[in-house]
Amino acid sequence: MIKQKSITVYVFILFMMNTLLFSPSVNAKQVAADHKSLSLIEQSIIKVASLTAKGDLDQLKIELNKALDAGLTLNETKEVLVHAYAYCGFPRSIRALQTLMDVTKYRKAKGINDHAGKDATKIQSQETKYNRGKSILGELTQAPQPVELSGYSAFSPVIDTFLKEHLFADIFERDILTYAQRELVTISVISAIGEAEPMLKSHLNITLKTGISPNQLQQFVEIIKSTIGKKEAKAAQKVLNEVLVSQK
Predict the structure, then answer these.
(1) How many Cα neighbours within 13 Å face the side chain of 175?
(2) Which of 20, 178, 223, 230 is such that its CA lies 20 to 30 A from the CA of 194?
């Protein structure tokens, strides 16, 4: 009797392992990705970007030090602050850059020589900036871009030009940060400024497409909560819930 029960348990375990490993909807790679945590550098990017958008320079100074200690290069840190301007404006971005200047000056006086890191690769393409930006947007959304403008782009075609040529060509094309890192900056800034749910929803979807997992986005919300506040985290969580439900 005991032997029969042991065989039954063994068969059940084999069945469950087979289901997890070979089911078309669940595979080992997915399981690993779903439990993966954000790296220290990714966490630093979220904190630095959200504090930049809020304009909390005292706390930003602390997190900039931590980001550099975590391994974010000087050029990558600058790029986070530059990228943020596209979503929260020049005043916040420039004040953050001035804060970084103070931080690097202080660290240098302490004998800390931060690694500059790589510069952006020079663009060799002969394609127009508009078409390059349109192509990058297609990569990010993993969807063909419409031939005809619609919505706000049709209402104000100049904003579509600025988005394609400047945001997605001039900024996103710079390879100092990866697309995933840029999307982390983007959703951090949008969450911090608030009242921009449609844009946050769009960029959360894009963030998933860049390889950031649902679990990592849940961790993102927790970081927003501890860095910026409960109100902003609650709003971000609501939008994230909608995004994750739509993915099923």
Answers:
(1) 5
(2) 178
